[in-house]
Amino acid sequence: MSHVMPVTPHSSSDSEGWSPQSWQSRQALQQPLYEDALELASATGRLATLPPLVTSWEVLSLKKALAEAQEGHRFLLQGGDCAESFADCTSPIISNRLKVLLQMSLVLVHGLKKPVLRVGRFAGQYAKPRSTDTETRDGVTLPSFRGDLVNSPEFTPEARRADPQRLIQAHAHSALTMNFVRALIDGGFADLHHPEYWDLAWVEHSPLAAEYRRMVAAIGDSLRFMETLAGPIAGFSRVDFFTSHEALLLHYEQALTRQVPRHLGWFNLSTHFPWIGMRTAALDGAHVEYFRGIRNPIAVKVGPSVTPDQLLPLIDALNPEDEAGRLTLIHRMGNAAIGKALPPLLEAVKREGRRVLWVADPMHGNTETTSNGYKTRRFDNIRGELDQAFDIHASAGTRLGGVHLELTGEDVTECMGGARDLNEADLDRAYKSMVDPRLNYEQSLELAMLIVRKSVGSSPR
Ligand code: PEP
Ligand code: CO
């Protein structure tokens, strides 16, 4: 997907007793209990022989691009499902998700006047952290559903058993997804070049309708102008696209951690850009141990309870040499908490002169449950947290370098609000998420336009 870029060798990969399995001597939270160690060993043994999903040169070229984002020369758009499922590994779901991400990125490129780095939350986003290990219904207690990488959501003992074969199935579904995404990108999405083909009926419902119509018309004009000058724009049909997932299930990640010819160290070749979730980011835990030794660019979710005293040692552990592009911090505070929680972290990292890319996840701090039992998020809270994030970074003299969103290209009704003002009753119509509520196609595009509107004006250039 990308070309090879020169990189500086990284010396710490094999240092201080690290190995792809050294995490096993630490406490590993959120791991399933496999009943049969031999069955697990046979599945991970097989997985370790299967081809990787990405290449080391793609991984290193993403790290370089993230370094450019740290300098303010690019903006990161990272998005996709909360949890992928094997059942959703279908042509329309994959292509619609890719389409909305590419359309959003065109809106951002045009508005922010800088290249957008596109990273999907897919081709491996199959494992989920859960608040409890077990679930009880009518007096029956079974293991919690932990994502298709581990078990199955139906409430039966067979379905909830942690099945090592799923490690191999997840790899296969990730490969199918990657293969289709790469083919779509290489072939080009015809209607990407023609915003007049985008589904924009929702714009009429927005108070900003006139402004949005002007924005979309201007994008169309720019694309046509460039195509007139240069012919069909190769850059739009061969856009770089990278993958990411929460590297939660460490047996899976370990089996796909490889050495390659002519590059030092170890690479996680299950994805370009793995991240550590909020629940597994303890400094002395297994996830931090695993992540410190891989050469990928990595991210960590940072929630509202994290203090500067906790964050700085984590940065030291994960990026001791202050390598450019290596570390992204994804803050996910909530619209109500961000004003208090974020500034001290920005100040501490700035004071210490540490190099990070700051990204806002305005989804995970804004989850609530409605009276009719749906897990939802309000568009106004998502937008509010993002607006505040831009302002807080601007006044701290730091830079918000990207956004991390849960979205789908489908017409679901999972988040409330947006131009069509979805309400509690609407959630019944098309609530499909197995885990967290996602922005639908329209809400995603609207948010991209709001990001442009907000950031032109408040972020340091
Ligand atoms: C997620 O990204 O789906 C997730 C579980 O996030 P967090 O770790 O921030 O809660
Ligand atoms: Co989620």
From TrEMBL:
<keyword id="KW-0808">Transferase</keyword>
<dbReference type="Pfam" id="PF01474">
    <property type="entry name" value="DAHP_synth_2"/>
</dbReference>
<protein>
    <recommendedName>
        <fullName>Phospho-2-dehydro-3-deoxyheptonate aldolase</fullName>
        <ecNumber>2.5.1.54</ecNumber>
    </recommendedName>
</protein>
<dbReference type="InterPro" id="IPR013785">
    <property type="entry name" value="Aldolase_TIM"/>
</dbReference>
<dbReference type="InterPro" id="IPR002480">
    <property type="entry name" value="DAHP_synth_2"/>
</dbReference>
<comment type="similarity">
    <text>Belongs to the class-II DAHP synthase family.</text>
</comment>
<dbReference type="GO" id="GO:0003849">
    <property type="term" value="F:3-deoxy-7-phosphoheptulonate synthase activity"/>
</dbReference>
<feature type="compositionally biased region" description="Polar residues">
    <location>
        <begin position="9"/>
        <end position="21"/>
    </location>
</feature>
<feature type="region of interest" description="Disordered">
    <location>
        <begin position="1"/>
        <end position="21"/>
    </location>
</feature>
